[in-house]
Design brief:
Length: 241
């Protein structure tokens, strides 16, 4: 069924003391949200974060971006950085800043919000913290090329075309390494699904069988704790050890 744009109208009923309205937003590529996708915060940018951020597209804030910030701070999405306007409402004591910037991922349509934190002491602390959603799977036609562990505390996946994105992840379905727990167990099951499908199974939660015991043992070990980029062949070697 096609969507027909309509004029937005409000209806006021004095006896009920509230307004009825509908806000519609049509995403550029696909719909995402915290009910399905995992929301991810990147506080310690590593090489993958810098590569990924370099491919994002700046845009004005939209309805998807508002889902990534505290509702009380939604108006702050529209305030310029102090670098662009020294009188911005985001300015703190002249040179400090607490603004937001917004982008979207051109490959997966994911909204991205970065919060600026700069102290007013000459910028001795000046950092950006990214918030976004992880995809649920790679796109149709994508081919898995490598898995990146522990880059800035996050997990990434690269396609054969060189597209880098956060590892597909469901809501409340985080990953981990270096200990025995739910996070490492979930990552071991994801890797097992990759191996069982020759890299075709990239859906988060799509592989329901138990993880390969050798993969599970490796993911829970200190050997998996370092930052490393692993191809399918690398993962197969780990499963054979």
């Amino acid at each position: 069924m096609s969507y027909t744009p309509r004029e937005l109208r409000t209806t006021y009923e004095p006896g009920k003391e509230y307004l009825h309205f509908v806000l519609a937003y049509e995403p550029r590529i696909g719909a995402v949200g915290s009910a399905m996708n995992a929301d991810v915060t990147i506080e310690r940018p590593g090489p993958c974060t810098r590569e990924w951020a370099g491919g994002l597209v700046r845009c004005d804030p939209n309805a998807l971006h508002t889902t990534l910030v505290d509702p009380r701070r939604i108006p702050d999405l529209f305030h310029p950085c102090v670098d662009d306007d020294k009188d911005s409402p985001a300015a703190v004591a002249g040179s400090g800043c607490g603004c937001f910037r917004t982008w979207y991922d051109p490959h997966f349509g994911l909204p991205v919000v970065a919060e600026h934190y700069r102290t007013a002491d000459g910028g001795r602390t000046d950092r950006w913290t990214y918030s976004t959603y992880a995809p649920l799977e790679l796109r149709a036609g994508d081919t898995f090329a490598s898995l990146v562990l522990n880059d800035g505390g996050n997990f990434w996946i690269r396609t054969a075309d060189g597209v880098l994105t956060l590892l597909p992840q469901e809501h409340q379905g985080g990953y981990g390494t270096g200990y025995g727990g739910t996070g490492p167990g979930r990552l071991a099951r994801y890797i097992t699904g990759l191996l069982a499908s020759d890299g075709r199974q990239t859906n988060a939660g799509g592989y329901q069988a138990d993880a390969d015991p050798r993969i599970a043992a490796w993911v829970a070990s200190r050997a998996a704790d370092a930052r490393q980029e692993l191809t399918l062949r690398d993962l197969q070697r780990i499963a054979q050890d």
